[in-house]
User: What shape does this take?
Amino acid sequence: MTPHNDFAPGAKRSLLPLLFFIALFLGTGLYLHQQDVAYAFYQLPGHVAIIPALILAIWLHKAPLQQSIDVMIKGAGNSNIITMCIIYLLAGAFASVATATGGVEAAVNAGLSLVPAAWLLPGLFIIAALVSTAMGTSMGTIGALAPIAVGLANQAGLDQALVAGVLLSGAMFGDNLSIISDTTIASTRTQGAQMADKFRENIKIALPAAALTLALYIILASDGAPISISSVNWSGVMPYAAILVLAVIGLNVFVVLLLGIVLAAFQGALFAEYAIANLGKDIASGFASVQEIFLLAMLVSALSEFIKQQGGLQWIAAKIQHLANRLKLAGNKAQQLAIAALAFVSNLCIANNTVAIVLTADVAKTLAQQHQISPKRSASLLDIFACISQGLVPYGAQALLLGASFNISPWQVVSQSYYCLILFVIALTIVLLRPAAKLQQTTSRA
Assistant: This one.
């Protein structure tokens, strides 16, 4: 590691556009939140807020305009980012087609049919966890389950904030663990890890946290009123089950998602009166649903290229390394904690776990490579701590949507986010107690 005081003056200056982006995005959200504007942190979308930051980066680059534009294009066209964006498109298309063919409703009803009324809290947690793991999106899970959960909470006379917290907990479980989650895609592609390896690494931490959370909800559960459930279309669950199995056994993610789209359309046509003529429109709708994260990932990568070329990322890594060395922990545990802190704090500022991962990915990869941390572990740490942070910020999309659905404050929602709090403790404990992971020289596979 180059000594942290040997960097050119431009290294620190190159961070100004990133800080400007964070200040603009976060500041606007905080101001609008004070004005009681609904979804305050999403009134200025991230992919729009970053444009002034890119203009500032070009100006600070102090090079001919065409040369600065070339730097921006190089960053936006990074092969890992483009691969990640294509996967986003396919994941969005699968979610859209599965929804149109009744897959989401089938998965929800299948879960509810197995849950006794007295076990509503642990049951909803399991359903939300399974649906979010299958769908790969916490927002999609909340959007599908929240209307049902509101009615169930009213029927059973349960505390609204507690039920909202249960949904948030289950949704963040799958958001962090799912093979097709955008956070999984971002963390594995940027760290050079295989998705199946990262899944196995993650589940060692997520499963104990989920088990403790489930035990807590069993303790909190009480007798509830009878719940009416629609008939279950078990064929609608097949595409979700298929992509999970195929992904876990290591099949290429592009093939997995394409097969998922085909299976969803096929079962819809056979069992749910789905018109195949609508398939193209539904796929296009899925593409549109990921437009914001697609553009933002490319633009953040473009901004990162300016920072990287001027030494800003190396300066950050050196500072973090300096702080980590002072912790005096055995092996590379201090550096693992540094990667975790990067993801957690970045997400507190951005309130978007995927963007937080993309922003901190290069620094995390540098720390991992220099301190013998395996790619699967650095990817797991990034994903876990970004998702923990996302599940605890009241201005995140998940808390805002749940607050609006249950007609309660987002602060009430995150105060009941027990899974994220338990996951935080479990993850820190495992990092501190387990042996350091050695770097494995493997070729990454999509």
Remarks:
- The first helix runs from residue 9 to 13.
